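Task: fold both queries, return tokens.
Query 1:
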Amino acid sequence: MRLTNIRQMRPFVVVLVVTVSLFMGCARDPQVAKKKYFDKGTAYFQQGKYAEAEIEYLNAIRIDSRFAQAHYQLAQCFLKQSDWSHGYTELVRTVELEPQNWKAQLDLASLLLAAKKIPDARDRAQTVLKEQPQNVEAEIVLSDVEAAEGNLAKALDEAQHAVQMDAYRSASYLHLAILQERDNDTAAAEQNLQKALSLDPKSVSATLAIGDLYERQKRWPEAEKGFQTAVALDPQNPGLRAQLARFYIRAGQKDKAEQVLLQAKTELKNNPDAYRMLGDFYFTQGEIDKAAVEVASLYNQHPKDLAVARTYVEVLVSQNKLSEAMSVNDRILKSSTKDIGARVLRGTILTREGKPQDAVNVLAPVVKDAPGSAAAHYQLCVAYGGTANLGQSETECREAVRLQPDMLGAQRMLAALALRKGNATLLSESSSQLIQIEPRSSEGYVLHARVLLSNNDQAGAEADLKKAIEVAPQNSAAYSLLGAMRMAKKRPDEAEKFYDQALAVNPSASDALAGLVKIDVEHKDLAKAVRRVRDQIARVPNNSQFYLQLGQLELQNQDSSKAEEALGKAIDLDKNNVPAFLLLSSVQVSRGEVPEAIEGYKRALQSNPRDVRIHVALGSLLESQNQWQEAEGYYQQALQILPDYPPAANDLAYLMLEHGGNVNVAASLAQTARKASLNIPNSADTLGWAYYHEGVYSAAIDLFQEAIKGDAKNPTYHYHLGLAYQKQANYAMAKKQLEYTLQIDPNFGRAAEIRKLLAQSPQRN
């Protein structure tokens, strides 16, 4: 039996050996192997599996590095995945190997045009047209080049020529229509879009374009039909459903948008791009509770979908569930340690946790690994802002908007930085971008109005503010700014009306209440101002800023007890209300309660550890109590947070000069403070005192004199000037300044020393 079986198997064994031999022969033939990889890659590409196709094309190229068609198809894989850099590299390699691959030449031209390398794009298109004068695609690229250079008339001529070259090509009419609409010839644009659709009724691009045109003309039913038709033409494409949903959002029909996305999730349940859209919709529309439920459900259903996991982290962060967000994010990083999105989110969470330096340490390597990630640059900008490194923060934000000009958060951050730094140019740029990104939001118009006001363009600012009110009647900022403008023109009655409107739409508008209080104070009606603030507190009892204003008014009323009570309440409501902390401590100092003031500053630092104002204020108070070593520590901490902070640099320099510190270091600090504070007498005096210690008496005298011009009754400045004159042996002037010092303040801290100097001073110049 065994023998029989062996005989029966022999033919099969022979066939198997022959088959294996043939297969191994194929494997040894590189031409056969590379074609096999190429064909497999093409099959994946046609199925839309671009990552898988990429691997197969790379395998083919490893066998034959000069395989031009594989390089070209690999480029297409990269382009389909929006990897423009690698796509460009592969296209360049393609045309090096196969210069007459006109399709690759034109793809290169399009990429160069997108990168604003217009002359290079023109050269590529003209090269193709020289060899193929009837190449319609090259003609269209040339038209796009002219449009990019602002030559719209010439671009239209080229587009018309493309139509004439092939009167039956739908895409040419579509291209011409887009340019005609840019030229405000909407009738011709509509006609050519209809022509494009008549030639190719299944053209999704033309269908979407006509929907866009109708929407811009506010022909809502026709626009809706256009977007719906696009979905019907390609029902498996989730991107088209997303466009229909966005149309409904713009049309103010969010319920319809939600239905479209629910339907996409049901009908395309195995497509990640489809089932993710509903959660993203809730999140971007600010419906955080709905987003949390939806995305948590998706996270449980698709635990390996990193895009869902990242969205879940974002939702948790927006709910301030930072511990849970970090836990989910850590799981992403455990499965994918290099995941850029998760690393960015880790930095975001650390910033939100009040650990901006830790966030910088996480995010700085991310922007090196992914320099093209606008999100990484933006979050690094926010982190640097938290460390008070405003220069680096601006640099990162500028890079974020360069990469993604419509990034709303980055433009807002730039506007905030511009306001903090008083940079009108930056504020103008960012506010203009905000208007362009969100023309139906009042924020950009209000900020732009501030720019115009700084340029004394009252009419332009007023127009911007009226536009802000038109698009968002419930935004109080525009009313408040109009009130401030009326106050500047000495028209308090009109100002009061605008401030009242601001509080009517937003009872928490502290800037509007401050404006009304200012009117009362200028009318010398302090009692009315106090009543007004107390009435507003009754309406909005948890507004920290209102209690701060009340504390300020009670101080003007010379009622320190009531002021202390109001300021304490302001701090209870908001531990980040630094002005309230500072003012409360100053009240305590004025009453001789220095230990209480010191403890108050230290409590403020617990909640605001990186606020340099508190460090300097505490340092100054400790220095006044002769606790100069501890004061020096707080000044140094302030400079670690913000290296060029003028008050800290100035006060630390003076303290070092007074207590035998390094004169060179002190002089450097004093110069830093002076550069940023040219009109502040104190900075002139400190730098002069540094020069005095360096023996540069002439320069010191000039600075002391400048300080006295700014504050003629400051005894320290006259004392320093007297010492400098004495060093120059100008005894008469020295005597005059020293005597005047005692005249200003007989109990001046160096009074005994001055009297001794006067007694010893020679009676001559």
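Query 1 returned. Query 2:
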Amino acid sequence: MLFGAAYYAEYQPYERLEEDIRLMVRAGVNCVRVGESTWGTWEPRDGHFEFDWMQRILDALHQANIKVILGTPTYAIPAWLHRKHPEIMAQGPHGHQVRYGARQNMDLSHPAYRFYCERAIRAIVGHFANHPAIIGYQIDNETGVRPLYNLGVFQSFVDYLKDKYGSVDRLNEVWGLTYWSHRLGDWADLWTPDDNTNPGYDLDWRRFQSSLTTDFLRWQANIVRELKRPDQFITHCFVGSHGTGYRDRYDVSQLLDIPADNPYHSTQDGLALPAADHAAWMLPEWSKEWGVYALYLRGDLARSGKGTNYLVTEVNAMAVGGHDTNFPAYDGQWRLAAYAFISRGANAISYWHWHTLHYGTENYWGGILNHDLGPNRCYRELSRLGNELKQHGDLLTDLEVGADVAFLYSEDSRYALEFQPCLKVPNSASPDRASYQRIFNTFYRSFFDARAQISVVHPPQDWERYPTLVAPALYVADDALLERLVHYADDGGHLVITFRTGYVDQYCRARWEKAPGPLRRAVGATYNEFSNLVLPLGLRAAEGAPDLPAEARAEAWADGLELEGATALAYYDHPHFGRFPAITTHSFGRGRVTYVGTLPNPALGKTLASWVLRQSGIVPLGEGLPESVRCTTARATDGKQLWFWSNWSFSPQTVPNLPIGGTELFTQARLRTGQALEMEPWGVRIVVAG
């Protein structure tokens, strides 16, 4: 298990390398990430590289037995490169020229930018590849944050369309360009995307932008692979949760030896169970997710791209977000969050960053050490964690994560629902550009609240082995993918689908068969109208269906479902919408399809998910325990089964009746089946079965 932080000795206000390393060793740090942010230090002048500053750092770390992940510094260009080659800067829509002064502000595909990138990568990796401290390389950093509107990029987009569709006649057909007289007579007629209104165009534009990111990272990976030692790995850090808007997690993960993620999360009351609503105000403005479920979602998404273990390269130290978002964790929360990620397959826990910066835009993004650079509450708790991982890290590495429910993720649907959102921002007339994320997260939280263990999967992957598959808002899908869902249910799986699933084809054209299109026979219901909901609607259980909690509500959306063999589970309690089922289920082949025509509130979502788990024969872990106590399982490489018990509250809790016997990892106490397990506030206990 790797444990440490991003470390920037070059940012320190005075010489303290020896002191930093002393504190790291005391804290159990065994790995740091270096070098990815300082191209201007590596190459202070055009073609003049300096290595002595990093040589000194690497030598000192190696002497202390601290491993190193070396980053390629290509995401933040030096000022001299911008001055000499302003043409490499990114452009936004309407000719807006992105200016120098931030980061990730260049055209990734520009030949001049690529030339200087390659020269720097070859110089740095070539110089240090044989250094014994370096175990791997991070290529670039959180790539894919902006669409590129440069003229050369647009011309490449035209070439992309030519290769994909072959002729303008085919493009006219699939994009429906007869509408508004947009038909093309020649490829030269294609307009730039600045004011585009066509959804088919927009979907291909976003796919193309993601392909630019994939191509750039593939190009970097190939260069590094040529230079590195065979025992060194290549990684790349994804932005936590749904990630950047112009990068496909699945595609990029295939380029890497092991993916990495930066899963920043809420803290303080934002990690309490039951969830505290006011915690939403404790987030930085760019974060839309809070709660314990979001922390597990980020771990499951991190694992999803390659279907393997992953590295956490950045996560909360003292504070996250900036000068107005200062919410350091409560005692125990740093450790609790780390073990949550480990329980979901993390092979590294690394914090951003070792020390809090004294200058620059991120000078209040708190590191392990604050501005005074001395040990503090965060350092002490992470030292406990680091020394635990030093003792038990081998057992906790390369875990095979337990999961009974799979969630099918669709980048295409995310792109399309950002362009044409189906939902409105709550309490607003504005469209919710995060409609896909909101629907996906709502259903993930529902199953998390029902104590399911979850894996996130992508269409090319193998998801047929899971007893339950949830496909939230699978808006964009070709017939082959929808037929695969039908076969999944026919072969015995429990398929849960939601409103908007299968509504448009792979070209973003609304299907001309009655919804839900190819899924109709498996769903056993259909609809030809739907409505946004301004206010939540109450629900009533259908006759013979399980009871609903009084606080169950349907939110944001209602499909006008008509039964065609399915059984209604719940109806809207409303003088108009009451004629329509809100949720249906249908026995199909050897399996079942449950259709949810609305966005459930937490009470409805948990009730529905619990019912689905029972129908699928899945026994939730920790059912009947206090809400703050959760359990997940994983299998170690030696075959041992690990049970992770966690308490997300200030109150001590007790697991009164352990379902398994074994050894508690941290105390080495022997536990019998049926024995009680005591949980400290914000505490974690790991039971090794056997």
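Both queries returned. Flag for query 2: The mean pLDDT is 96.
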